[in-house]
C-alpha cells in the first residue's frame, strides 16, 4: 500500500474531500460482509444473490462503521493551546514549602522549559507558604502581583502544585491563599495515574541501572533489582493514587511494584516486607516525586533502612513538563466552557 496520511487532506480538515483520494486504504464498507458478520442465533445464512435488506439499526451501524473508517484514530489534544491571547492567566508553579532552595534547581529548570516552549506564557514560581504576603516568593504575594497585572475580574493565574500525587496540605494552603488574596485563580492538578508517569519512572530506574531500558532506547543493561517500591509524599491518598501508577510500571517491567509513603502509612518498610514475602531479594526505591516536595535525606534514609538502591526523582522529565502543560490547558478549556466571553482559548490540535 502506498504511503498516505490518515489524518489530513488537501483542505487540512479530516474527513472532507474525496474519500478515495484522501484515504486510499479506507473505502466504502462491504455491506454484504457486514451482514454476514457474526449473525445472531436463529438467523438463517443468506443465500448468494439474495437481496440485501437492512433495518434502520443496521443502516445506522453501517454509517458509524463508515465514519470510523473515514477518520481512523482518536482525538489528539495539544498539551498547551497553539496560541495564547494577551492577558492569559499566568502559570504559577507552586512548590510545597520544604526548604529555602525549593524554587531553585528542578523548579527553575521546569519553569525555564515552559517559558522556552511557550514564549507567550507568563510562568511564575512560588512557595506554598502558610503566612501572609511578607515573603515575595510566597504564593500569596505572587498571586496578588499576577492579579494586579490583569484586568479586574479576569482569570489571573492557574496554580499548578508541583507534585505528581495528591498533596492535601499543599492544595489546602493554595486554596487559602487564593481566598486571602481575592485573586481569580484556579488550581490545576498534575498528578495523573496514567502511562506518562510510569514511563518517566521507568526511565529514571533504567538510568540508574535498576531496570531494563525500554525498547525505544534500543539498548539493554544488567538490572540489579527484582522488585520496586514507589515512594510518595502527601499521605495515604498519595499512596492510593500511586498504586495505579505502580500497576502500570509493573506491566512495563514485568516485576512486582508496590507504592509506599515517606511521610505516612503504608511505609517503605511495610512495602519492603511485602516484597520480601513474595520472594523478592533485590529491592529498588523509585521516588514518585518531582523533587522539591520531598526531603532528599528522607529518600536516602528510607532506602538505607531497607538496604535498597534508589534512582533520582522525576525532576524535569519531559512527561512531567507535559503533565503540567495538560493541567494548564485543561483549566483554560474549563474556563472557556464556563465563561464563553473569557479571553482564553481551549487546547486543540495535534500532539507536539
Task: Characterise this structure.
The structure is a single chain. By secondary structure, the protein is α/β, with parallel strands linked by helices. Among the domains are: about 90-190 and about 320-340, Rossmann fold; about 195-310, 3-Layer(aba) Sandwich (Rossmann fold). It is built from 11 helices and 8 strands. β3, α6 and β4 form a beta-alpha-beta unit. The longest helix is centred in the C-terminal third of the chain and has 21 residues, at about 320-340. The radius of gyration is 26 Å and the shape is elongated.
Read across the widest sheet, the strand sequence of neighbours is 2-1-3-4
CATH architecture title of the domain at 90-191 and 321-338: 3-Layer(aba) Sandwich
The total of beta strands comes to 8
Give the proportion of residues in helices: 25-40%
Task: List its salient traits.
disordered C terminus; Rossmann fold; 38% helix; elongated; 4-stranded parallel sheet; alpha/beta; 352 residues; 11% strand
Q: What's the short version?
A:
Helix content is about 40%, strand content about 10%.
Topology:
Layout: H1 19-22, H2 31-36, H3 56-70, E1 90-96, H4 106-117, E2 123-128, H5 139-148, E3 157-161, H6 168-181, E4 185-187, H7 195-207, E5 227-232, H8 236-253, E6 257-261, H9 268-277, E7 283-287, H10 296-305, E8 309-310, H11 318-338
Parallel strand pairs: 1-2, 1-3, 3-4, 5-6, 5-7, 7-8
Amino acid at each position: 500500500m502506498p504511503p498516505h496520511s490518515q489524518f489530513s487532506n488537501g483542505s487540512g480538515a479530516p474527513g472532507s474531500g474525496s474519500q478515495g483520494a484522501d484515504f486510499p486504504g479506507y473505502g466504502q464498507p462491504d455491506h454484504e460482509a457486514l451482514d454476514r458478520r457474526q449473525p445472531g442465533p436463529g438467523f438463517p445464512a443468506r443465500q448468494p444473490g439474495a437481496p440485501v435488506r437492512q433495518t434502520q439499526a443496521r443502516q445506522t451501524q453501517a454509517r458509524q462503521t463508515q465514519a470510523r473508517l473515514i477518520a481512523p484514530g482518536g482525538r489528539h489534544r495539544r498539551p498547551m493551546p497553539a496560541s495564547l491571547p494577551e492577558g492569559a492567566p499566568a502559570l504559577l508553579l507552586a512548590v510545597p514549602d520544604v526548604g529555602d532552595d525549593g524554587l531553585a534547581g528542578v523548579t527553575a529548570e521546569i519553569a525555564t522549559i515552559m517559558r522556552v516552549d511557550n514564549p507567550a506564557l507568563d510562568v511564575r514560581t512560588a512557595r506554598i507558604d502558610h503566612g501572609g504576603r511578607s515573603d515575595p516568593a510566597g504564593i500569596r504575594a505572587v498571586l496578588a502581583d499576577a492579579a494586579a497585572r490583569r484586568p479586574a475580574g479576569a482569570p489571573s493565574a492557574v496554580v499548578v502544585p508541583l507534585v505528581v500525587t495528591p498533596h492535601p496540605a499543599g492544595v489546602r494552603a493554595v486554596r487559602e491563599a487564593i481566598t486571602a488574596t481575592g485573586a481569580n485563580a484556579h488550581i490545576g492538578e498534575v498528578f495523573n495515574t496514567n502511562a506518562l508517569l510510569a514511563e518517566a519512572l521507568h526511565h529514571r530506574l533504567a538510568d540508574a541501572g535498576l531496570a531494563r531500558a525500554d525498547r525505544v532506547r534500543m539498548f539493554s543493561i544488567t538490572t540489579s533489582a527484582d522488585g520496586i517500591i514507589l515512594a510518595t509524599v502527601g499521605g495515604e491518598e498519595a499512596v492510593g493514587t500511586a498504586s495505579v501508577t505502580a500497576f502500570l510500571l509493573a506491566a512495563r517491567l514485568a516485576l512486582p511494584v508496590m507504592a509506599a509513603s515517606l511521610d505516612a502509612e503504608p511505609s517503605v518498610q511495610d512495602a519492603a516486607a511485602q516484597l520480601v514475602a513474595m520472594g523478592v531479594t533485590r529491592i529498588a526505591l523509585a521516588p514518585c516525586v518531582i523533587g522539591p516536595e520531598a526531603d532528599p535525606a528522607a529518600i536516602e534514609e528510607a532506602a538505607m533502612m531497607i538496604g535498597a538502591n534508589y534512582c533520582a526523582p522525576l525532576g524535569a522529565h519531559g512527561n512531567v513538563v507535559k503533565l503540567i502543560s495538560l493541567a494548564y490547558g485543561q483549566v483554560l478549556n474549563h474556563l472557556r466552557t464556563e465563561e464563553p466571553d473569557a479571553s482564553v482559548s481551549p487546547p486543540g490540535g495535534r500532539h507536539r
